[in-house]
Q: What sequence folds into this?
């Protein structure tokens, strides 16, 4: 029994997102798993990270409300194609970028 009590004191409690607020501080989002995932930019093959950088550098002026494939930028329209989960994640990253949040690929 003593060993179990000692071990439980050494193991940190995992943070949950249910009814508790996150602690103040920096959080990091690791996108290394999807950075090389294939998407299309204006019909041309690309990777997730290349598409994100293109959108970020083009200064998106309008994030699509419904759907997630057409972005208006200061240099014209950019249309993405690919897995809906990846495109949904892209929409969130671009929205964060517009709000001034430093996202993983902008470091």
A:
């Amino acid at each position: 029994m003593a060993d179990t009590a000692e071990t439980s004191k050494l193991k940190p409690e995992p943070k949950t997102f249910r009814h508790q607020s996150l602690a103040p501080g920096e959080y990091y989002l690791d996108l290394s798993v999807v950075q090389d995932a294939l998407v299309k930019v204006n019909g041309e093959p690309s990777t997730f990270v290349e598409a994100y950088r293109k959108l970020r550098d083009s200064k998106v002026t309008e994030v699509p409300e419904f759907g997630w494939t057409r972005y208006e930028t200061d240099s014209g329209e950019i249309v993405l194609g690919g897995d809906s989960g990846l495109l949904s994640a892209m929409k969130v990253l671009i929205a964060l970028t517009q709000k001034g949040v430093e996202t993983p690929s902008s470091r």
The radius of gyration is 19 Å. The longest strand covers residues 76-81.
